[in-house]
């Protein structure tokens, strides 16, 4: 989302999923959503088998049923792209949104990260610190680190305080100590991406997966893997990167 961060779906199987766009909306007004489709793992270009359909809805209320949703925009991946040998396909959708929150002032006042000479070094250092927290399954430290991002999600998705209290303390799988043989990929072979007019930054694997990425075994011995994106910003008056 322009002026905010992104979602990434990197599965190679067909699926249908609903995602709340609220967490990527900074304030009311015109929103610009950029959709990027990449080839499946092992493919250099988008093939004739690629299929993507995106519908954007506005729900009257958090508890509204699907029949009450109003479709405000849609996109379907065009056919015949395979002949163009595209490494990715990009499409932009504009829509209006009215929301009871405004995070734009906080971002406007935040430090412009790409102007910091050693920003990559600082970002890598922070990622390694967080990776160590995850390796130690330090739930308290990870919860503290995620306080701003959690509050942002709760606020933008209208989650009441009782719902927050009822959530499991260990809600972050990446610090789940119940997994056996836990291993994390090293913070290397990444690419760095800036967001929100260079006020937010994140590191990603080359395959677009999060760089904070865990592999382990559950109680049945099944191998599981996954990661959490880590978006960083530097608040006004601070010289420390924190989780957005």
What does this structure look like?
With about 240 residues, the protein is α+β, with helices and mostly antiparallel strands. Helix content is about 20%, strand content about 25%. It is built from five helices and eleven strands; from the N terminus they run ββββαααααβββββββ. Strands 5-8-9 form a three-stranded antiparallel beta sheet. Strands 1-4 form a two-stranded antiparallel sheet. A two-stranded antiparallel sheet has the order 2-3. A hairpin with a 5-residue loop joins strand 8 and strand 9 (about 225-230). The protein is globular. The two termini are about 15 Å apart. The model has no long low-confidence stretch (mean pLDDT about 95).
Main pleated-sheet profile: 3 strands, antiparallel
Q: Element order, helices and strands?
A: EEEEHHHHHEEEEEEE
Structural class by secondary-structure content: alpha+beta
Approximate strand percentage: 25-35%
The overall pLDDT, averaged over residues, is 93
The best one-word shape is globular
Give the helix proportion (percent range): 10-25%
Q: Count the DSSP helices.
A: 5
N→C terminal distance: 15 Å
Number of strands: 11
| Order of adjacent strands in the largest pleated sheet | 5-8-9
Give Rg in angstroms.
19 Å
Uncertain runs are: none
